[in-house]
């Protein structure tokens, strides 16, 4: 039982001082009570797949095998081989691997590979027993022995010399055991670890799922014994008060002796990682304990020159707390930061200054070990990658990281949203009276106690996307409980939903470019680009900040060179399946091109996603899904970084940071496709969430050709730029009649004297197309009698069918695949953009890069990709479409070849309809006709008429 004592509330310290003297506790020559012993090393071990160990009293016998801890069973070579009967922890939506003939080679025991996530070298779910002999030195005589297991997966039970000590089931914090007073000498320590899903957190929760970290069995991190006195510091919680420049320090003193006692409590804080060292004045207070554990509260003045913590200046303090008496002495050092994370209207504020969350998810993706690292160095690497891409925030999707992550984030100024290890889906619910309801409360309490002092710990939620008829009522009470218990951070019900009145901020998928299941009706597929759109309607609907939930989810083609990186417990055998498929289709040599081209498209999609959030006045922030790839749920290659947080080859951190950082110039324009008869108009805006407002900022803009030649430039009025994102800076007007159309222009906006710069592409086409020259080109919609006759006569034929008459089932989507087709029930689009050679003479009058960009939207939306598998050998489409890596069909929009003596160009883009309103289609048609009229039109590949016949419906040429 613990009691609460607030020292500043005492009317006088005289009574305590009297007690202190009566008990004669002023002597201080006592050694500190804390001593430690690491248990890392070789342990005895035994798996228990049939769960016989408890009945067989294995805690009383010596186990026969050995294992190294910290570590997991797979790391030590233990577990079962993966088979088609393996019982996974995680939902498999597309189950075709179990039945489809194309996967038959990968179901064989000697070649087993799964496509829906990484394949573990070993798999095991069930109890396993770990045992070692511990030596208690004589100097620990009469001390209490505490056992700490930093991270276990999942439930643990502990015995010492066959005596049961207890059990623990946290997925988020160390499992702590009081072993009692042990005599000097050797004792047998036995631990049973069971990674069976013990509580209904959801099989897809990243705390337990094979989708990401794997459902591993083991113990990682620090494994240690600590000897301590009966009277000791059990916990220290520090509550900063920025306004009053002080901190409330809550010290819980454990007293397992049961005796009444008193002593002196001393506080001493010193900054340690800032340019200016700040030593806070020491404070002492007397305390008395009547035999039970008590929490003592002290107001600790930090001084007017206190250093605050934020993303730009992550100043930290070490607070040393000591208790001192006649028979005891103990000391504990805690790191904390002076920061206040609150809301101001619909935006977040840190220490009273508005801030904007630029975040990504971390889903416990660590392929080498299959579990999260517990060392600070590894987490510095992760957070450095995030910061290099302009992010200031990580959301831990349905799990909580170890202490090392918080330590690294504290040092680097990164804000965390932590979750209570749950994603109640696929059966489990919250709020309906299941054991998960009480477990979430307990897990939240454990998280707040273990990590509550870390300034990086800014937000907490139950977990991800809950289910349950009474979820709103349950989560509302949970949020209120947290707010009352610990106001150092902000709380919300869950990531995704529900939006309830108790939330201090809302996480919602509403404000993003693509909703789950939207398919081709999503913004980027249904409409041409405008950078005028924002999420003001979403902001105006609520009185607290909203964070857009899991924006992006745009895939790229697998990086097959990545396979070699998987040198640990997880292997990228899904990538091996994709590689085999691509090779069978004769396109393995294009794998790198597919990656880079789809990556360039992915980047522009993320750019517009992020900028739409940044240009929304009053918006709270976004959480990407994801900055790095997600290896599970059907393989979701949604990152610009791979699962190792490493560069994939198509966008550098510096390039990404132009549109994602604390200060980003923005441009609102109604469209990106223009003609030389128009005047370009754009409104310059800025999202500025830096450490301070900008004074007398000079904003410059330039429009330039791809070779860097300037078309026009200008300077907006000099002005002060406040913190926020709702202030326009001025307008850009550019007469496009001076532009040498067709061309792409880069519109660049920069803040002079800074590295804040951003750019957008616009495309300028002639207002009208030149009349076609006389030629012998025959333009047809079907390869009928007339066309075949012309080809036999050696003429040139442009086959330009109505896209609706193209066979095949390839939906015409502009974007890349959303998440992936396996997990979304084959949601369109099924493709990853286009690949072409801009130097090909067919495109000489159509300015383009080798990949999709926004000017391709009209062409893709009015097309249908042709499946060219019948032309597999030798045919390279002029404009190729990159297929889903699960199918790897050869797809094309434009290709060429010969039929007899004739030359044929085939285009399945609609270049006929409404050309007066479609300058991009008009220009593509012009470019193709120019090519066919030129000497360069000399296709070499013979095309079989029967194969051409299969491309179109309703053929009538026979």
TrEMBL record:
Signal peptide from the UniProt entry: none
InterPro entries: Beta-gal/glucu_dom_sf, Galactose-bd-like_sf, GH, GH2_Domain-Containing, Ig-like_fold, Ig-like_GH2
Organism superkingdom: Bacteria
Pfam families: Glyco_hydro_2
Ranges of residues in domain Glycoside hydrolase family 2 immunoglobulin-like beta-sandwich: 232-339
GO molecular function: hydrolase activity, hydrolyzing O-glycosyl compounds
SUPFAM superfamilies attached to this UniProt entry: (Trans)glycosidases, beta-Galactosidase/glucuronidase domain, Galactose-binding domain-like
Keywords linked to the UniProt accession: Glycosidase, Hydrolase
GO biological process: carbohydrate metabolic process
Family: Belongs to the glycosyl hydrolase 2 family.
Name of the featured protein: Glycoside hydrolase family 2 immunoglobulin-like beta-sandwich domain-containing protein
Organism: Anaerobaca lacustris
């Amino acid at each position: 039982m613990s009691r609460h004592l607030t020292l500043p509330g005492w009317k006088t310290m005289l009574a305590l001082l009297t007690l202190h003297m009566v008990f004669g506790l002023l002597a201080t020559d006592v050694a500190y009570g804390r001593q430690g012993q690491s248990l890392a090393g070789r342990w005895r071990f035994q798996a228990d797949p049939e769960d016989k160990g408890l009945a067989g009293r294995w805690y009383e016998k010596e186990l026969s095998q050995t294992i190294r801890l910290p570590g997991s069973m797979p790391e030590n070579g233990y577990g079962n081989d993966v088979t088609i009967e393996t019982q996974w922890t995680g939902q498999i939506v597309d189950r075709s691997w179990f039945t489809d003939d194309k996967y038959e080679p990968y179901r064989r025991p000697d070649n087993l590979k799964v496509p829906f996530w990484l394949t573990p070298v070993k798999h095991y779910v069930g109890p396993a027993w770990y045992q070692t002999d511990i030596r208690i030195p004589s100097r620990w005589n009469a001390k209490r022995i505490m056992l700490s297991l930093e991270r276990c997966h999942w439930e643990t039970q502990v015995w010492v010399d066959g005596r049961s000590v207890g059990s623990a089931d946290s997925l988020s914090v160390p499992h702590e055991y009081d072993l009692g007073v042990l005599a000097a000498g050797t004792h047998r320590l036995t631990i049973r670890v069971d990674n069976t899903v013990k509580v209904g957190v959801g099989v897809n929760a990243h705390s337990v799922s094979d989708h990401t970290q794997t459902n591993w069995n083991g113990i990682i991190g620090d494994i240690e014994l600590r000897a301590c006195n009966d009277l000791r510091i059990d916990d220290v919680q520090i509550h900063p008060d920025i306004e009053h420049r002080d901190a409330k320090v809550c010290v819980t003193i454990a007293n397992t002796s049961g005796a009444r006692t008193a002593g002196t409590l001393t506080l001493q804080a010193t900054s340690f990682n800032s340019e200016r060292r700040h030593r806070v004045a020491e404070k002492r207070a007397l305390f008395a304990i009547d035999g039970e554990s008590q929490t003592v509260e002290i107001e600790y003045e930090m001084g007017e020159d206190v250093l605050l913590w934020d993303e730009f200046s992550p100043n930290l303090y070490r607070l040393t707390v000591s208790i001192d008496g006649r028979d005891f002495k103990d000391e504990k050092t805690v790191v904390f930061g002076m920061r206040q994370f609150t809301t101001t209207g619909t935006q977040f504020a840190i220490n009273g200054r508005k801030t904007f969350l630029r975040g990504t998810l971390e889903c416990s993706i660590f392929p080498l070990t299959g579990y999260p690292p517990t060392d600070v160095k590894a987490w510095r690497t992760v957070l450095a990658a995030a910061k290099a891409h302009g992010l200031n925030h990580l959301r831990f999707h349905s799990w909580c990281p170890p202490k090392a992550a918080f330590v690294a984030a504290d040092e680097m100024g990164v804000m965390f949203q932590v979750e209570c290890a749950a994603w109640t889906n696929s059966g489990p619910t919250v709020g309906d009276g299941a054991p998960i309801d009480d477990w979430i409360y307990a897990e939240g309490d454990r998280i707040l106690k273990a990590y509550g002092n870390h300034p990086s710990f800014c937000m907490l939620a139950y977990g991800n996307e809950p289910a349950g008829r009474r979820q709103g009522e349950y989560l509302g009470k949970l949020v209120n409980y947290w707010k009352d218990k610990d106001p150092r951070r902000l709380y919300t019900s869950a990531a995704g939903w529900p939006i309830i009145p108790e939330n201090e901020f809302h996480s919602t998928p509403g404000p993003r470019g693509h909703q789950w299941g939207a398919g081709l009706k999503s913004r980027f597929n249904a409409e041409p680009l405008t950078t005028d759109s924002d999420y003001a309607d979403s902001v105006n609907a609520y009185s607290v900040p909203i964070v857009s939930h899991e924006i992006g989810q745009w895939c790229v083609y697998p990086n097959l060179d990545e396979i070699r990186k998987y040198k640990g417990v997880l292997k990228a055998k899904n990538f091996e399946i994709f590689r085999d498929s691509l090779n069978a289709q004769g396109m393995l040599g294009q794998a790198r091109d597919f990656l880079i081209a789809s990556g360039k498209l992915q980047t522009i999609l993320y750019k517009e996603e992020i900028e739409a959030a940044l240009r929304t006045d009053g918006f709270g922030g976004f959480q990407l899904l994801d900055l790095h790839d997600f290896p599970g749920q059907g393989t979701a290659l949604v990152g610009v970084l791979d699962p190792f947080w490493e560069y994939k080859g198509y966008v550098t951190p510096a390039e990404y940071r132009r549109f994602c950082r604390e200060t980003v110039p923005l441009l609102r324009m109604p469209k990106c496709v223009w003609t030389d008869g128009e005047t370009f108009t754009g409104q310059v805006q800025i999202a500025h969430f830096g450490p301070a407002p900008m004074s007398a900022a000079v904003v410059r803009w330039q429009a330039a050709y791809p070779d860097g030649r300037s078309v026009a430039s200008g300077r907006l009025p000099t002005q002060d730029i406040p913190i926020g994102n709702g202030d326009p800076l001025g307008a850009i007007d550019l007469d496009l009649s001076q532009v040498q159309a067709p061309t792409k222009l880069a519109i660049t906006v920069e803040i002079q004297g800074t590295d804040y710069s951003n750019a957008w592409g616009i495309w300028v086409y002639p207002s009208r197309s030149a009349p076609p020259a006389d030629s012998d080109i025959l333009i047809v919609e079907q390869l009928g009698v007339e066309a075949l006759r012309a080809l036999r006569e050696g003429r040139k034929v442009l086959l330009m069918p109505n896209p609706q008459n193209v066979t095949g089932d390839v939906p015409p989507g502009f974007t890349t695949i959303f998440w992936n087709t396996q997990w979304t029930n084959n949601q369109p689009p099924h493709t990853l953009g286009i690949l072409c050679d801009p130097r090909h003479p067919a495109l000489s009058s159509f300015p383009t890069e080798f990949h999709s960009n926004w000017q391709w939207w009209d062409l893709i939306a009015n097309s249908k990709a042709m499946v060219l598998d019948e032309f597999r050998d030798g045919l390279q489409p002029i404009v190729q479409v990159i297929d889903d890596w699960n199918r790897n069909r050869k797809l094309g929009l434009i290709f060429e070849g010969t039929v007899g003596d004739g030359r044929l160009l085939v285009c399945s883009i609609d270049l006929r309809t409404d050309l007066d309103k479609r300058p991009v289609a008009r220009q593509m048609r012009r470019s193709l006709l120019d090519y066919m009229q030129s000497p360069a039109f000399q296709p070499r590949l013979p095309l079989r008429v029967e194969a051409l016949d299969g491309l179109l419906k309703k053929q009538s040429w026979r």
